[in-house]
Amino acid sequence: MEDKILGIHHITAIAGEAQRNYDFYTKVLGLRLVKKTVNFDDPGTYHFYFGNETGTPGTILTFFPWTHVKPGRVGTGMATDIGYAVPAGSLDFWSNHFEKHQVRFGQIDEQFGEQILRFEDPDGLRIQLVVPAKADNRAPWVTSDINKDVAIKGFHNVVLALRNIKPTASILTDIFGYKLLQQEGNRYRFVTDAIENAAIVDLVEEPEVTHGLVAGGTNHHVAFRVKNEEQLMHFREIIESKGYNITPKIDRNYFYSLYFREPGGVLFELATDNPGFAIDEPVNELGTHLKLPVQYEPERATIERVLPKLIQ
Q: What is the pTM of this model?
């Protein structure tokens, strides 16, 4: 059994108002809402999954939207930035598109030899569009405003800010099968060759920066991808043998998960490809129905009354 993680599975962040979050990611960024469900621990809160047509691992950004959530603070011990891959020549379109929709964004820049455009979502979550050095051939979700020549393909990278990168780097290289590809100043790029896309983790070493506060507009955790439950439990044995506290296997309806906190403070999840988002609604209807974990189905009427109304 090959001991390599298959890149990023999904990233989960915290948002404020649900309607604003939905509108931004579907109408401004042009992603598909592939699943509308609830927080397993707080069923009065939505859990949104945005991605491509089928919610392929490596495209999925998920949110817990809490209407009155306090703003978080970006700092060390967290994932600070999400990088999405876009086609070459698309960044001018996105600059104009962001200006039209009053999105906060910066100038087109370069990092690790790749063009990037940084911006923030309505809650302040930091995201960047990246033109990869090697073209990303994944099929994107397209809308009437965003065609395939400019549409977001899925994740390119995620950025973790740390006081000291060495313990986290050891997790990536010794357990997950990543290798150090490149360094620019205090930024270290790690990549896995086990998958073509969503394969990059950037570690930024900032020993003097205050620890971040996970709340509105920040990332809650980063999930790494494994093929199936057998692989998941294989990695659990490895991680536990290294002395880390890791959860039992958890059924998240659309994948199976394990969680552990890496030494730098970032919450890591391992998540399986199976069974996928089409297990409880057909692909052409993904995201159109409120899907509840089986334990909450008897409370559906109450939950639907509590959840904010969402116009889709």
A: 0.97
